[in-house]
Amino acid sequence: MAGAKAPRVGPYLCGLDAAFDVLSGKWKALILWELHAHGVRRFAELRRGVPGVSEKMLTQHLREMEEDGLVHREVYAEVPPRVEYWLTEHGRTLNEALGSLGAWGEERIRREGCELVGGAEVASHRHG
After folding, report:
1. What is the rounded CA–CA span in Å between residue 13 and residue 2?
2. I want to staple 21 with a disulfide (CB 3.0 to 4.6 A). Which of 5, 8, 80, 83 is the partner?
3. What pTM value is reported for the model?
């Protein structure tokens, strides 16, 4: 793939450095959550489930997440072709690890009185 980023293999300062290297960008954690919440998703379903992500960014992040072993992509030989995505075991463990960070964010939302997209409930985006 021309222009692809170098694989994320360190060196790292600590575990958080390695984790955030894989999670770079706003959308990856939200993609993880969407796949965790719904299991198998097609591209259009992911696009609807992660409001605000562009088609280009979703495609890029899904490719990177597949390269990092977080997401499995399955292409079915149908007309039109059907492509489905789901979390690998590695992706599930990362999503579980994000649970505490999500809880911290929920507390911040309550404390600061932040607005949520579409009036969602705070606990509705909990990881894990």
Report:
1. 29
2. 8
3. 0.79
The residues, ordered by sequence, that sit 6+ positions from 41 with a Cβ below 8 Å of its Cβ are 34, 35, 49, 84, 85, 86
Ordered DSSP codes for 81-98: -EEEEEE-HHHHHHHHHT
Asked whether 73 and 83 are in contact (CB, 8 A), the reply is yes
**DSSP assigned state of 118:** G
In this structure, the chain runs to a length of 128
Burial of 85 (0-12, 13-18, 19+ CB in 10 A): buried
Which position has the token pair 């170098």?
6
Residue-wise pLDDT for 88-103, tens only, equals 999 999 999 998 888 8
> Both tokens of residue 13?
């300062």
Instruction: Map residue 119 onto helix, strand or coil.
Output: helix
